[in-house]
Specification:
Number of strands: 10
Order of helices and strands: HEHEHEHEHEHEHEHEHEE
CATH architecture of the largest domain: 3-Layer(aba) Sandwich
Oligomer: single chain
Largest sheet: 5 strands, parallel
Distance between the termini: 30 Å
CATH topology of the largest domain: Rossmann fold
Radius of gyration: 19 Å
Low-confidence stretches: 11-20
CATH superfamily of the largest domain: Response regulator
Mean pLDDT: 79
CATH class of the largest domain: Alpha Beta
Structural class: alpha/beta
Strand content: 15-25%
Number of domains: 2
Helix content: 25-40%
Number of helices: 9
């Protein structure tokens, strides 16, 4: 059981905060040096620790390295735009809970919110308005993400649920795919974890098809494998 819990914990979101300074850390992502400098000045004056990235690819690497408390993303950047970077961060269990604000000259809020960002501002933005939203999101912390666990093994599902709940997730446990699909349509979870034994079930194709329905594009699906008392977790091939 100890090995089971340890393996599950390795796949749950962890945070590496800027505790040494006791300040919340913001990652500012923009290809414009002047904008990064201006945001740094305003954020540091408001008591935040600031890190920077100049494109989407660098942003993803820095988020994984630093686990900041919040990310401010521009959209139009070289190598990878802000929308694509946000989508990558939202699809990774290690970064999916970090609040994201998009700050861009582009007015495409619908696309941003479909990806799962927390807030969208168009440039130019009033500094006090931006700082107020940052304060709200940072004080809220990582919002509770909804997870559905599909497992006929009550002991294993209970253990997994307990580990996820200690990490701030809201967990619903169901014992069949029919119940999972019904619950998913009602609650639109952020993640579905399915026992690999269900992968040969007829309902599994219906479950995967959810990803193609409007409003379900960003559900992250994981397959839970069990062998010799050990747990393995892999991203579903959807």
């Amino acid at each position: 059981m100890d090995n089971l819990v340890r393996q599950l914990r390795e796949h749950v979101v962890t945070a590496n905060k800027d505790h040494s300074a006791g300040r919340k850390q913001i990652l500012v992502v923009d290809d414009d040096t002047n904008i990064r400098a201006l945001l740094r000045q305003e954020l540091e004056a408001d008591g935040y620790s600031v890190a920077e990235a100049k494109d989407g690819l660098q942003a993803i690497a820095r988020v994984k390295e630093l686990k900041p408390d919040l990310v401010i993303l521009d959209v139009m950047m070289p190598k990878m735009n802000g929308f694509d970077a946000a989508a990558v961060l939202r699809s990774d269990p290690d970064t999916m809970n970090i609040p994201i604000i998009i700050l861009s000259i582009m007015e495409d809020m619908d696309r941003g919110f479909r990806i799962g960002i927390d807030s969208y501002f168009t440039k130019p933005v009033r500094t006090e308005q931006l700082l107020k939203e940052i304060g709200t999101l940072v004080s809220r912390g990582n919002s509770k993400k909804r997870v559905i666990v599909v497992d006929a093994d009550e002991s294993a599902s209970k253990t997994l649920a307990e580990v996820l709940e200690t990490k701030g997730f809201t967990v619903v446990v169901v014992n069949d795919l029919e119940g999972c699909i019904k619950n998913a349509r009602e609650s639109k979870p952020d993640m579905i974890i399915v026992d690999s034994l269900f992968s040969d079930n007829d309902g599994y194709d219906q479950l995967k098809a959810l990803r193609f329905e409007k409003g379900f594009e960003n559900i992250f699906m994981l397959i839970l494998g069990k062998q010799n008392g050990k747990i393995s977790i892999d991203q579903a091939n959807v």
